[in-house]
Amino acid sequence: MGTKAIEVAGPGAKETVELLNKALADEWLAYYQYWAGALIVKGPLRPDVQKELKEHAGEEFKHAGMLAERIIQLGGTPILDPSEHAKKTNCGYDAPKDPNVEIILAQNVKGEQCAIGAYFSILQKLKGSSDMITLNMVRKIMEDEEKHEQDLQDLQDDIKLAKE
Ligand code: FE
Ligand code: FE
Ligand code: MG
To answer: pLDDT digits over 12-56, tens only?
Structure first.
């Protein structure tokens, strides 16, 4: 942890750690959902979709790392037991049981839209707090989630056009 960092972050640091741990659960599950989806996906544009899903998996994994490091800086403990992920998640986990590319993409779009909403709500809560570092980190992650949403929706458009 960082004692000065905690002091500067202000009295809300404990509550922030809770929010970040919930986001960490989301990121871990999003990582796994993309990772598993990339393995089993079938259908039009499969190579493009697989590449995008793998990339997103890597980015969600990176987000998990950013959140965990900030949690530690703020004197908290990141989730250590994977059974906690399902309990703390905001956005849940949608197992890619159907390999159909359109279904996989729709599941992941839903996940990204939930993530955008969840990060937006963290930003709202941090607005006015002195913890600019967390605020800035959450903004950066949210920016990535908006790109993810767009990438997936672009693929949905391309698949629709390819089928016409
Ligand atoms: Fe993410
Ligand atoms: Fe994402
Ligand atoms: Mg992408």
So the answer is: 999 999 999 999 999 999 999 999 999 999 999 999 999 999 999
Ligand nearest to the CA of 26: 1
Distance from C-alpha of 160 to C-alpha of 149, rounded to nearest angstrom: 17
> Which domains are present in the chain?
3-163 (1.20.1260.10)
The encoded tokens of residue 54 equal: 């793998």
pLDDT for residue 76: 97
The ligand with the least distance to the CA atom of 111 is 2
Give the C-alpha separation, 61 to 96, whole Å. Answer: 18
Calpha distance 152→108 (Å, rounded): 8
State the distance from the centre of ligand 1 to the C-alpha of 148, rounded, in angstroms: 9
Residue 128 has a pLDDT of: 87
Looking at residue 117, its pLDDT comes to 98
What letter would DSSP give residue 102?
A: H
**If phi over 0 gives left and psi between -120 and 50 gives alpha, with beta otherwise, what is residue 131?**
beta
Residue with tokens 């969840």: 118
163 CA distance to ligand 1 centroid (A)?
30
Ligand 2 midpoint to CA 7 (Å): 31
